[in-house]
UniProtKB/TrEMBL annotation, chains A, B:
Domain HTH cro/C1-type as annotated: residue spans: 10-64
Biological classification of the source: Bacteria, Pseudomonadati, Bacteroidota, Flavobacteriia, Flavobacteriales
Protein name: Transcriptional regulator
SMART domains assigned to the protein according to its UniProt record, in alphabetical order: HTH_XRE
Pfam families membership: HTH_3 (PF01381)
Domain of life of the native organism: Bacteria
InterPro entries with a match to the protein in the record: Cro/C1-type_HTH, Lambda_DNA-bd_dom_sf, Tscrpt_reg_HipB-like
Example of a GO MF term: DNA binding
Length: 69, 69
DNA sequence: TTAATTTTACCGCTATAACAGTAAAATAAT
DNA sequence: ATTATTTTACTGTTATAGCGGTAAAATTAA
């Protein structure tokens, strides 16, 4: 899905990992502004930056369609 | 997963939909270069552009982690 | 084969994401 | 309450994604 709550999902995972936005940003190798934007569901972020954040939080992406099922 | 074959997945769906890169780009409201880049697994594309392409092809995204399971 | 289509790969230009500061809200801790 | 921490929201600058145009490969159709 075009998950509009991706930001909330990431924030929740970050909190449970005991990380601040700045710590997550440093671990992911992105700027703090980018983490802030991602958690605010700003969809103009770049895919590589999102991937870097997801990797730190151990969140996997799956793509599904009628063809892949 | 940080699906490295997202490009191939999209290309496959596009082909099965009988669309050219240019047609898909127009339907998604992005430039042809963007579709080309996405199919080449260029991860610096912007999330909104990827979402627009996925929507046209009816591909859904899911995020999974030990916490969401 | 040849012709038509599509994909790949450039180009220059424009718009803006990403960045590190900074500072003010908001939240949490004492 | 006060203090410390974190988040939010700006800034100016820099790097580059995205764009249409073009043209050459590659692929497909005739």
């Amino acid at each position: 899905m075009n998950n509009l709550n991706l930001g909330a999902l990431i924030k929740d995972h970050r909190k449970k990992a005991g990380l601040t936005q700045l710590e997550l940003a440093n671990l992911a190798g992105v700027g703090k502004t980018t983490v802030f934007d991602i958690e605010k569901n700003k969809e103009t972020v770049r895919l590589n930056n999102l991937f870097a954040v997801l990797r730190v939080l151990n969140i996997k992406i799956e793509f599904k369609s009628p063809l892949t099922k």
